[in-house]
Amino acid sequence: MSTQTADHTDIRATNLAAVLGHLRREAPCSRAAIAAGTGLNKATVTSIVGDLLERRLVRETQQTQNHVGRPATLLVLDGSAYATIGLEVGARGLTALGCDAAGEQILRWHRAGPGVDAGPAKTIAAVVALARRAITTVQSSGRQVLGITVGVPGLVNRDGAVVLAAGLGWTDVPLRAELAAALGRPDIPVTVDNDASLGVLAEHLYGPYAGTANLVQLTGDTGVGAGIIADGRPLAGHLGYVGEIGHLRLVPDGPACGCGRRGCLEALASLPAILEQVDGSIDDDPQHQLETLIRRADADDAAVAKVLAEAGTHLGHGIAALVNILNPEVVLLGGAYALLAGHLAPAIDKALREASIAPDAGGCTVTASTFPHTATPLGATAHALTPLTRGRLPARS
Amino acid sequence: MSTQTADHTDIRATNLAAVLGHLRREAPCSRAAIAAGTGLNKATVTSIVGDLLERRLVRETQQTQNHVGRPATLLVLDGSAYATIGLEVGARGLTALGCDAAGEQILRWHRAGPGVDAGPAKTIAAVVALARRAITTVQSSGRQVLGITVGVPGLVNRDGAVVLAAGLGWTDVPLRAELAAALGRPDIPVTVDNDASLGVLAEHLYGPYAGTANLVQLTGDTGVGAGIIADGRPLAGHLGYVGEIGHLRLVPDGPACGCGRRGCLEALASLPAILEQVDGSIDDDPQHQLETLIRRADADDAAVAKVLAEAGTHLGHGIAALVNILNPEVVLLGGAYALLAGHLAPAIDKALREASIAPDAGGCTVTASTFPHTATPLGATAHALTPLTRGRLPARS
């Protein structure tokens, strides 16, 4: 009989997701309109709306519909009683973002370090400390925390373990399990995902290209990775290892890559590779080093221009592989690439158009992300809402 | 009010698709079970089932369910009154396949030529002649033809125009429109798609890896292309140009490719490239030439083994790009690659494992397709069923 029960829970969740989806697209709307729009019967809709009202996920308005017939009480979504927390672990530090369930930002913090060489244990301790403070802040604003999602620049499997994060020097770190244990809050689900996969979620929901069905975001702050929305949905693949464009071999016997191979896109055109080509090494303060790079580029420094043009050509070839395989409508340059986009774009466009098989690069536009600093944690706050958007209601607080 | 009507038609189609989907997974089942499984109310289910019975897409059985309570009449799908026709335009000739709506094969024909140099007009005439004969054969078996889908080795846009098919020497051929006009059967929808995209559909529905959520099929008979199922759905991209892995540049300044670039995977490891490396040229009868190649490979001919090992290495690097970007669970070697799989596989596996960033190539298995000759037309018959599976009922015959 347990199968029977599970099935009924699934149906309830599917129906609840359909009601929430209808409200997201059409609100304000009546119960009758939800029933007509979803094909669910009115008793089911009334029962689901009751659950949503009780949890303050929807509220009734006094508006009436502008058509002939009896005025109906209308419903609108209300995300103000709930929040999620998104965190990014990067080579340049930790970022935390808190948003309510409607996407309104509640908090945004950045912490420098722990550095790339700190190792997983120190980083996990720093993430947990930041997450605890964020939980306290969100709760003191009267909101219930629905979940925490953490973005990492590396291969993350479906259990939230970091299989490989070359830029952080991590291998086989069971990050989700260790964070959850250290946090000690079984009421707050913790998930871990790839930073680029989370970043493209933010663009797909909140950016100027929101809703673009075939959208890619490319970042190169630590390694080079692509987050992919394909045919309207985030791409995940068999084990979760998608978008690893950084290890496309562009130059046989090219410069050594952190992965142990040679001539990878990442070794040629990641931010660390660019900084090393310009300055000969990576500083203790890469943030300051990046700012100097941008200043020199903006001042038409010839040496910097040459490095950026070469990096742009390599990025164009990497993006051409994405274009030939996925045919995206838009490729967004994220992170530091967004800040350097004006200098990278001409070489990217030229190489992309030369190396794409489809005319006009398959209609692809390459442009800068509008969230160069927060795409990953913002996408993480949206990702932590997944159980709710799939129809799993939060526990009653 | 037309929007309102369109909305209601959409809802009816969505609900009909849900009922068909439930029947496909669960049949035999009762109307009540369909209502419970889909969340639709019983009156809606009864009305939809009525439409399906009237069109002989489902039938009632006398079976009763094995549980306590009143016996219910059960429903099963019945595809025997309808058929679709799939056609493949290849460098080696034309193939036609007819299947009923349950996937049972009704006819399978192969015609040699028109050759690669015949041009679009002659090829379109040959396709139309073959399609007409197939329609007559299907109709004389008492079935209604629901649609015709044609697979082409090239870039096909969403209007069914072939933007570029380098292997056929075609540019900007409005194939769907010209086929439909020449066929003169407005009651039978004609669609055109990329051959590899159709081939992987056949594997996803009928092959030993049917249902694999992340599945790629690679073919190289004319150009080199990949058909992609990602997270359970065929990948289409912005304009329909996905899987063009053949023009990944593997060897800067390598051999000239038909696309005008150098060192593309296609120029190194397509079937024509392999035949040319072995024999110095492509025969008038490439089918016979391929059979000779296979015989020599099976007899451990050293020159052939060397060419196939090199081609396998290049294919392994091409597949690594797919693996790094898409993380498929299975990559199937289709067409001639399937017939040569035993000889290609060791070099493919070695190069793939070296060039993939994820451990163990992200869990990817590379193996031979079981439909080396018919994947594309078989996938095309399934593709022509798309309107029905999306809930658009056929016209009453």
Automatic annotation (TrEMBL), chains A, B:
InterPro entries: ATPase_NBD, ROK, Tscrpt_reg_IclR_N, WH-like_DNA-bd_sf, WH_DNA-bd_sf. Belongs to the ROK (NagC/XylR) family. SUPFAM superfamilies: Actin-like ATPase domain, Winged helix' DNA-binding domain. It holds the Pfam family ROK. This is ROK family transcriptional regulator. It comes from Kribbella soli. Residues 15-60 form the HTH iclR-type domain.
